[in-house]
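Duplicate of #3305? Posting structure anyway:
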């Protein structure tokens, strides 16, 4: 099976959009704020060649952009990620999962207006801890 990392990153972008949109309505000014935050926490830490890193960065921001462009609510965007992850969980190694969770927590902290806990992060944590079914022999 060929792994399409651009699809993985696009769906991670949907997830990050969902976390930001969970407790507030996002406005156009929030787009740059979210992109900058993701860039600081996520994109700069990738250990890929420059061309691949650039393509993955575009894919990640494409998911965020689609959330904004389609005025998705947090649940819609989370479901996009969840459904993709449930179908394609094998390429998500432990380091990638930890990076996803840590970035989601940072985004929640930055975009939460009232300090309430995040139901999406709790659901994400449970989802990422689930062990994928073994491949048939």
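Output from current build:
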């Amino acid at each position: 099976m060929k792994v399409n990392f651009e699809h993985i990153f696009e769906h991670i972008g949907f997830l990050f959009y969902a976390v930001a949109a969970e407790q507030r309505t996002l406005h156009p000014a929030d787009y740059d704020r979210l992109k900058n935050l993701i860039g600081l926490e996520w994109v700069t830490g990738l250990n890929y060649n420059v061309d691949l890193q650039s393509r993955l960065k575009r894919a990640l921001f494409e998911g965020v952009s689609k959330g904004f462009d389609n005025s998705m609510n947090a649940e819609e965007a989370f479901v996009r990620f969840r459904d993709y992850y449930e179908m394609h969980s094998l390429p998500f190694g432990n380091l990638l999962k930890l990076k996803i969770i840590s970035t989601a927590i940072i985004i929640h902290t930055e975009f939460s207006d009232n300090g309430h806990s995040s139901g999406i992060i709790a659901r994400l944590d449970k989802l990422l801890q689930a062990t994928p079914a073994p491949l048939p022999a």
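Confirmed duplicate; merging threads. The chain has a mean pLDDT of 86. Helices lie at 5-21, 28-41, 50-69, 74-87, 94-111, 119-129.
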